[in-house]
Amino acid sequence: MSTHAIDTGEHGWGVDSPSLTMFDFDYQDGRDQLLRLYDKGTRRQWIGSDRIDWSGEVDPDNPLGVPDDIIPIVGTEWWNKMGEADRGEVRRHLASWQFSQFMHGEQGALICTAKIVQTVPDIDSKFYAATQVIDEARHVEVYSRYLHDKINLVYPLNANLRSLLDDVISDSRWDMTYLGMQVLIEGLALAAFALIRNQAGDPMAKSINAYVMQDEARHVMFGRLALRDYYPQLTEAERGEREEFCVDACYRMRDRFLGEEVWSTLGLPPEVATYVDTSELQRTFRGFLFMRIVPILRDIGLWGDKIQKAFADMGVLGFADSDIDAAMADDEAAAEQLDVLRMAHIKAVASDGS
Fold first, then answer.
1. Which residues touch 125 (CB under 8 Å, ≥6 apart)?
2. Region 69-88: what's the mean pLDDT?
3. pLDDT band at 7 (very low <50, low <70, confident <90, very high)
4. What are the sequence ranges of the domains in the chain?
């Protein structure tokens, strides 16, 4: 079956990125935590075609196997008027839209991490970022395979994510690439991945997100370690500029997950997007998305009045005291548990065959 791509007439995108390429000749001046993370990154590489079981078929009417109560229009007049075939299309398009944004975001991460290798002044950061480049390429690969081979539907890059990627890639300062990608975009993506990992009934969708999250937990730690060392060296004005960027970015990311493209593609009226924007389900979802970003920004020292006011306005300031290290440990454990189940299944199949 061929894949249908929502046509925008655009097949590529170029972003000007003036950057200073940095060499570091002090090859032994590595920070212990970053070098340990680099070692872990090299040992945790995996192959998408081997670690994920691609043999299964997905349900075209509910590819992710998620409950209907996470669909924001369930219970509305628009949903109630639909037959089962139309409801199946809603589920399929929402799944495609989510995974498409994951895929595009991972390509953004691939580009940003390659830029970090080029621009960051420290050799230990270059070492680790090189392992992340491979990780991000693998993530693009597995999301693309799921979209093209299983759902057969791909959405274009969302406008809010696009504008944020544009800002991050085009900024010449190496720390802004870290801040925008490693902390903000990756931190929010982890929360979105977790919702699917925890709720998906489809084993393929669950494992893809769990394994990607295992990598992303290291990536976010990389950003935290580098920026936690660097930001105390900045002036108050320089930190204030970065806090202002974070506030603007967080509002844009909050608005990234409305899915207007889905509702318009399905021919639903414009008021659907307005309803989704103000729904209780969407408010809860938005809050969950910032569960990892808020404590990380506090941890790296971007915790001025402007950021705290913005998070209070969004209703997520309470996440500041969240145990981000425990959440990352849970991400690691979830992937390892799936590996245990996968190996048990492989052994059971082999035993039955003998």
1. 34, 116, 222, 226
2. 94
3. low
4. 85-342
